UniProtKB/TrEMBL annotation:
Transmembrane segments annotated in the record for this chain: none
Reactions accelerated catalytically: aldehydo-D-ribose 5-phosphate = D-ribulose 5-phosphate
GO molecular function: ribose-5-phosphate isomerase activity
Protein name listed in UniProt: Ribose-5-phosphate isomerase
Native source organism of the sequence: Dactylellina haptotyla (strain CBS 200.50)
Pfam family, one: Rib_5-P_isom_A
Coiled coil: none
Pathway recorded for this protein: Carbohydrate degradation; pentose phosphate pathway; D-ribose 5-phosphate from D-ribulose 5-phosphate (non-oxidative stage): step 1/1
Length: 267
């Protein structure tokens, strides 16, 4: 049975998802909508499925992994794999969860091992909207009290010892090959057949360049397929959301946009 705290977190996710879908799902039928992964996205898909069918019947929903594909299918929504998005077309809006979001809207993602497909969808979306609960709010990324697990880094399996050493050289204080869990002996294998390293770095101090420079350095290691830093700034944009919705403990929803925080009234 869910504890009171689990119920609170779940209703915060649900409220944020309902509000984000209400505010950002297009008012005329979109061609393509991106759907991320994780537990919060379940509420996003529930909210989309409750929209008038005239807004969803002709839409192709682009999942970011096995979980979101099954979720969409269970709601009888049409799916399209990202590699079938026609050249020149873009996704109207992509919705996704996050593990940690800083005050500049940079995110850590990949706690559920789906970061590569999430990023390839996010960067092809005209608008990327993050939906999360109050635990994900942070001033700076890699804050141990917010997200102690570090930055997920997806690697080609044969490269993991090399990438581990390189991440340590970059300043990681701990790098763990993510285990598969109770039902899988050995490491976690991503939807792309790769391994994941969780690299704990000291808290990334405020400043636009810090996240961008670390992201570029991690991506530059041979064997790295992608990492869970979704960021943007003067050196380029790699999936930083335009806006993030957070369900709060008091039943309200707070919204972090480019202009800062906006508190919405309680439901
Ligand atoms: O790989 C997983 C994703 O990046 C998720 O969106 C992220 O971990 C947040 O998941 P949840 O909504 O379950 O907190």
């Amino acid at each position: 049975m869910a504890t009171a705290n689990e119920k609170l977190i779940n209703s915060a996710k649900q409220l944020a998802a309902q509000t984000a879908v209400r505010d950002h799902y297009p008012k005329s039928p979109p061609n393509y909508i991106g759907v991320g992964s994780g537990s919060t996205i379940v509420h996003v898909v529930d909210s989309i499925a409750k929209l008038d069918s005239s807004l969803t019947a002709t839409t192709k929903f682009i999942p970011t992994g096995f979980q979101s594909k099954q979720l969409l299918l269970s709601h009888n929504l049409q799916i399209l794999d990202i590699d079938l998005l026609p050249a020149g077309e873009s996704i109207s809006v992509a919705f996704d969860g996050a593990d940690e979001v800083d005050s500049q809207l940079n995110c850590i993602k990949g706690g559920g091992a789906c970061l590569f497909q999430e990023k390839i969808v996010a960067v092809q979306a005209q608008k990327f909207v993050v939906v999360a609960d109050f635990r994900k709010v942070s001033t700076t990324l890699c804050t141990p009290t917010t997200w102690p697990s570090g930055i997920p880094v997806e690697v080609v399996p044969s490269s993991y010892p090399y990438v581990t050493a390189k991440l340590t050289k970059l300043g990681a204080t701990n790098v763990v090959l993510r285990p598969g869990g109770k039902a899988k002996a050995g490491p976690c294998v991503t939807d792309n057949g790769n391994f994941l390293l969780d690299a704990v770095f000291p808290t990334l101090l405020e400043g636009e360049d810090i996240v961008q420079d670390l992201a570029a350095a991690i991506k530059g290691i041979v064997g790295v397929v992608e990492h869970g830093l979704f960021y943007g700034g003067s050196k380029g944009w790699q999936g930083r959301p335009e806006i993030a919705y957070f369900g709060m403990e008091d039943g309200s929803v707070n919204m972090l946009g480019k202009e800062g925080w906006v508190a919405l009234s309680k439901a």
